[in-house]
Please model this.
Amino acid sequence: MAATRSTSADLLHDTALVSATAPGRHLLLVTDGNVAPLYRERVEAVFEGRALHTVVLPPGEQEKTLARHAELMTALSRLGASRDACVLALGGGVVGDLAGFAAATWMRGVRFVQLPTTLLAMVDSSVGGKTAVDLPEGKNLVGAFHQPAAVIADTTTLDTLPERELRAGLAEVVKYGALGDADFFDWIESNAAALLSRDAHALSEAIARSVRHKAAIVARDEHEGGERALLNLGHSFAHAIEAEQGFGGMVHGEAVAVGMVLAGRLSERLGLAPAAPADRLAALLQRLGLPTALPEDLEAPALLGRMRLDKKNLSGRLRLILWRDIGRAIIVPDVDEDQVLAT
Ligand code: ADP
Ligand code: ZN
Model:
C-alpha cells in the first residue's frame, strides 16, 4: 500500500511534503490540458532546480493508449531517467492510470506519486495500485499492479472540478457505503446537500472514509483473488453501459450509479435481499444528481453480451457483485442470465 497518504486542503502548496515524496534525480510530471493551467505551476515550483519534465496530455479516456504510453517512455529516456526516476501523476483517473503504468514499466518499475485532482481519483483510482491503458478491444486490458509511494489528495483542487465530475465521484463514495458500511451510507444520506455544495469538511470526511474502506480491502486482497472484487459493485453493468455507449455517453461514475441500482434490483429479484434497499439507494443517487435507470437507447441483450466478456467472470459463468442489504455486498459466482435480462 501507499507509504504516505495525505488528504486535506492546500497540500500542493506544502513544498516540504510534496518534494519529500519524490527524492529521485529525474522527475516526469504527467497531467492533462484541463488540469495543467490550474495546478501545473504549483507542482513545478515545488521541484524548482530539479530535472523535471512535464507532459501535458489532451484530456479524456481516449488518451489512455499504448501510443501515449510510448510517448512517456520516450520522455523518460530523453530525460536520461534511471532506476531512481519518479513519475508524478497530476490529474484524474486517466492521468493516474497512464502515468502509473509508465512508472510500472520504465526499467521494470520506478517510484510513482499520485496527486489526484478529481473526487473519483481521490476516493478510488489513486488507491490500490491498479495501473493500465485501454485497447480498442476494451478498457484497462494492458496494465500492472504498481503501488504509489505516496498519494497526496489536495481537496482545494476540487473547487474547480466540473459539477458532473464531482457527482460522478460521489457515486463511488456511495459505493463504499452500499457495499460494506451501512453507517457510512446513513452519513452520506445526512450529508448529501453538504457534499453537493462542496463543503470542505464533508468532502474531507467522505474521502477519508472511502479511502479507509478501499485501503483495508486492498490490504487484505491486493491482487483481487477474492474480497477485492466487492469493490466492483455495480461495475459489470457499468462497464457494459460504457462499452455500448462509447465515448460521449455516460461518464464512469454515472454508469456505476445505474449499475449499482441494477445490482440492487437483481438482488431483490433473486431473493438475496429484502425488497426496498434498491429504492433507498436510487433515492440517494438521485439526490446526488446521478442517473439511476438505463438510457432508453440501450438494449438489454446487447448489454448482457458485453457483461459476458467481463474479466471477472470465471469459466463462462456470469459472476456478479450483488448484495443482501445496504452495507452487505456478496460475490455471486453463477447468476442466471434470464434474471439479468428481466432486471
Ligand atoms: P476520472 O478521474 O473521473 O477518472 P478524468 O481523469 O478523465 O476522470 O478527469 C475528468 C475530467 O476532469 C477531465 O476532463 C479532466 O481534465 C478534468 N479535471 C480533472 N481534475 C480537475 C480539476 N481539479 N479541475 C478541473 N478539471 C479537472
Ligand atoms: Zn469505478
